[in-house]
Amino acid sequence: MAIFLTADSRIIVQGITGSEGRKHGARMIAAGTNVVGGTNPRKAGQTVDLADTELPVFATVGDAMAATGADVSVVFVPETGTKAAVIEAIDAAIPLVIVITEGVPVHDTAQFWAYAGATGNGTRIVGPNCPGVASPGKSNAGIIPADITSEGRIGLVSKSGTLTYQMMYELRDIGFSTAVGIGGDPIIGTTHIDCLQAFQDDQETDAIVMIGEIGGDAEERAAAYIERNISKPVVAYVAGFTAPEGKTMGHAGAIISGSAGTAQAKKDALEKVGVRVGRTPSETARLVRDIMRG
């Protein structure tokens, strides 16, 4: 079992003929992911060779779904075309679209997120500005390295790509059911809360790791949700304890405004509802290890 992405997932790459689409498409195939094709309206009807696999190129997501049975799209389209690419995926009613692209204007994200809601939320959006979704031993959609961890019973949801990789590596001996990089932009499709509930419902996830960061109130809202709805143990890490006020740190959403959005405020809110919070990634991994041993 895994959340969002399973061994049966059939994946297409929007932007498969571009440099990023080709590079990461080949890496996904090498990891055992079932990549079945991709899109580029200017090169429809052609094929692209990735990792010794000849894949068809289609004009649209709808065409690709009709021909291949695809149910996941990974978007490697430049930021200027990302909104149109995601709306195309929504119109095709593909169940999952993972938006890797960074630098997407916030108003574009707001528009395609609202469009998904207005059309019935038939398409789950992960991202933008995210590393993707990985279910070790089953499938890997995005840019998460496939060889840094093993299959296991920890669920991971993270705003940060690099901290996702570090946590997966530090707990590689225990392993993960699924790791979801949700991205650190001010507006994203899938949230901490969405993943927390999915892991709660997953019979093969025993514990959950949540990685947040300064800025916004997503972690505080997640804490309130955990108190009401999550019975599995949750361990958290909040990046940015030493970040200066009023300065964007890394992600577009990682900015402290006055007393709101600080790492300490998020840590306090999480600990208040029984979540164990590490002050470093390594300490967080040790807390997870203690829970799994128990």
Q: Give the biggest beta sheet.
A: 7 strands, mixed
Give the overall silhouette.
globular
Radius of gyration: 19 Å
Query: Mean of residue pLDDT?
Result: 93
The assigned structural class equals: alpha/beta
Output the CATH class name of the largest domain: Alpha Beta
Give a count of the beta strands, DSSP E runs of length 2 or more: 14
- Give the low-pLDDT segments: none
Fraction of helical residues: 25-40%
State the CATH architecture of the largest domain: 3-Layer(aba) Sandwich
Summarize this, please?
With 294 residues, the chain is of the alpha/beta class. 34% of the residues lie in helices and 23% in strands.
Description:
By secondary structure, the chain is α/β, with parallel strands linked by helices. It has 2 domains: 11-126, Rossmann fold, CATH 3.40.50; 148-293, Rossmann fold (3-Layer(aba) Sandwich), CATH 3.40.50. The chain is 34% helix and 23% strand. It has 9 helices and 14 strands. Helix 6 (192-201) runs parallel beside helix 7 and helix 7 runs parallel beside helix 8 (263-272). The mean pLDDT is 93.
Keywords for this structure?
single chain, 9 helices, 14 strands, 7-stranded mixed sheet, 2 domains, Rossmann fold, 294 residues, alpha/beta
